[in-house]
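From the methods appendix. Each design record in this collection lists the tokenized structure first, followed by the designed amino acid sequence. Records were kept in a plain field format so they could be parsed without special tools. The example shown here is representative of the layout used throughout.

RECORD:
FOLD TOKENS (213 positions):
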């Protein structure tokens, strides 16, 4: 499984905003974005930003696509596949795309509060700590459906991390389209997420325009 191993703070700086890729650290003064919010590179301080009024239509579309990719931790080839899948489905392509991204197993684990970031959630999933409908699941990109049940596997419940997870996850809010039972370390996908329940900083229409050129 390919993964980005570079400094993630550079990704936030390139997009000109916090993407919260390091979890709780992003909320502290230690966050690198607080010290250097300009884009990386020798032209970072004076270079054109994706959100600038001078930016071309293509630049705004590209930045919207790159931001979504980086938020969910997906490379270009897989992201393009998600777009084509969303295009074939009924309804609005942009909303379909965001729903597919939200229904990834690693994102669901993150939304449940079981991990402080999506990268940590991917690690937990790839180590086989979760089951889907009582079957072991270790593929972070696995897509869930309404009605699916996500549980911490029996063998993982005895580990220190999951013993303490109830207290750690309790203060973390859960999105309305998921139901979480911390006592049993189980959760259910109730329905598809609505647009208002997905990151409002993502501009799906620009992503659709980018791939429709």
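DESIGN:
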């Amino acid at each position: 499984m390919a993964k980005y191993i570079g400094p993630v703070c550079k990704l936030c700086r390139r997009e000109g905003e916090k993407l919260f890729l390091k979890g709780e650290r992003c909320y502290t003064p230690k966050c690198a974005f607080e010290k250097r919010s300009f884009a990386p590179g020798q032209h970072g301080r004076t270079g054109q930003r994706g959100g600038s009024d001078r930016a071309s239509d293509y630049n705004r579309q590209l930045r919207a696509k790159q931001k979504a990719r980086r938020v969910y931790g997906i490379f270009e080839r897989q992201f393009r596949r998600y777009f084509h899948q969303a295009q074939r489905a009924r309804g609005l392509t942009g909303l379909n795309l965001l729903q597919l991204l939200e229904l990834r197993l690693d994102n669901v684990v993150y939304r449940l509060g079981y991990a402080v970031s999506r990268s940590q959630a991917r690690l937990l999933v790839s180590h086989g700590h979760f089951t889907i409908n009582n079957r072991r699941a270790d593929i972070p990109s696995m897509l869930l459906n309404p009605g699916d049940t996500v549980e911490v596997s029996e063998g993982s419940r005895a580990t220190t991390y999951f013993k303490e997870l109830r207290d750690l996850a309790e203060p973390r809010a859960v999105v309305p389209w998921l139901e979480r039972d911390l006592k049993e370390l189980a959760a259910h996908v109730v329905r598809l997420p609505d647009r208002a329940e997905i990151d409002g900083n993502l501009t799906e229409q620009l992503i659709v325009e980018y791939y429709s050129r």
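APPENDIX NOTE: Confidence is low (pLDDT under 50) at residues 48-52.
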